What does this fold into?
Amino acid sequence: MFEPKIVAFFCTWCTYTAADLAGTARMQYAPNARIIRVMCSGRIDPQFVLDAFRKGADGVLIGGCHPGDCHYQEGNYKALRRYHLLQRLLEQMGIEKERLRLEWISASEGDKVKQVINDMTETIRRLGPLNIMELPEQEPVRAASLT
Amino acid sequence: MSKPKVAFYWCASCGGCEEAVVDLAENILDVVNAVDIVFWPVALDFKREDVEQMEDHEIDVTFLNGAIRLKEQEEMAKLLRQKSKLMIAFGSCSHLGGIPGLGNLWNRNEIFQRAYHEVSSLEEHNGKHPETHVKVPEGELELPEFYHTVHALNQVVEVDYYLPGCPPTPKLLLQAVQAILQDNLPERGTVLAPDKALCEECPRNESKPEKLLITDIKRPHQVHVDPEKCLLAQGVICMGPATRAGCEALCINGNMPCTGCFGPTSKVLDQGAKALSAVASILDYNEEEDIQQVMNKIADPVGTFYRYGLPVSMLQRRNLAKTKS
Ligand code: SF4
Ligand code: SF4
Ligand code: FES
It folds into this structure.
């Protein structure tokens, strides 16, 4: 059976804490998400999302505090706006928009972490693997300056 | 020192970069006098065999413009690389994939279908499109393979320097030629333009409010663009924040937004993602519905944010599995 690789970016104050809670409560859920802790969902640069897909993720999950609850006031709103634009970009690039998901999960919602990861794993299992790179990973143009 | 031997070559390009060389105006005579042009098919009668007969590294500098779309272009890039001491990617197409790179939203079959079977501007729909081998009464002809994916020059050969721009400005080209003549080149791999964002050299930067916020996105033809005010602040998508400086804000001075032809600075991996992020950040809405309503006004996100750089972007092309075979 195809085991999807999901890269999950969780904000430290809410969603990561919730994942921690799910862990200490010994909840059982799909082992398909690799969680990366970031300070705030607003810190998730769209480049991180594309880089994850480029390096072989079949799905990317973004988790942040509920609207109004962001530790830094508006980080999650920024994440929401980027997410909508990114989804449109992904669709144009032939990547199903379900492969990118955004969820608000507060620190106490350990069971929501479980449910979202299980659900996303199943969705992506149905979509199948994402093989976007035709050639092995290539270094993008990196350059210094003249002046 | 004897005159440096210079070659110019074009791959998938529009010819504008060749024009940029001629645009050096009176300076071109200084350049022509200072160098020995050993290969320039667009202007002088040279053939591939002439290059093949050269020694390795016999050419001092090759300026190659255009993206790599055909097998023949890849072969020529490799041949010129072998014969040249320095390989310079000249212009956006060679540097980033350029406008031809937008072809990466489709594959070969889709492009042929459209260009040779569907477009209404075709005089005659004869059901034919290019094949690598074609039989004609005189015998069999061979045409170079048309790849599914367009590549930037550094994706097929090693590149020493990049001259950005669509096309590069005469000033940058002249600076580069002088640096070569004076043997005063920076570290290999350098883009020969300042490593800062266009906004920093834009005359309208000062008009940018401290906290830039927009409530709507408009295309240039939908507004009377105020010629003094930052375009982004007027709701017109300007790639300035995600684009390398060096053109001295050419398009802005023509009262049009920057579309990103100089590519990103060295700190940015993906120019489009950077620009997308900037636009998303300044949108003054928090409700999903409002956000979607404004974002939907960007009819073509790839063409907007990756106009010149799709082949060197993180995703490089549309998912091939999702294109029609
Ligand atoms: S966003 Fe565009 S118009 Fe505004 S300062 Fe930057 S380059 Fe100039
Ligand atoms: S303003 Fe932007 S698009 Fe226009 S020449 Fe400069 S870098 Fe290129
Ligand atoms: S701190 Fe959780 S989304 Fe900002």
Residues 29 and 114 of chain A are 5 Å apart (CA to CA).
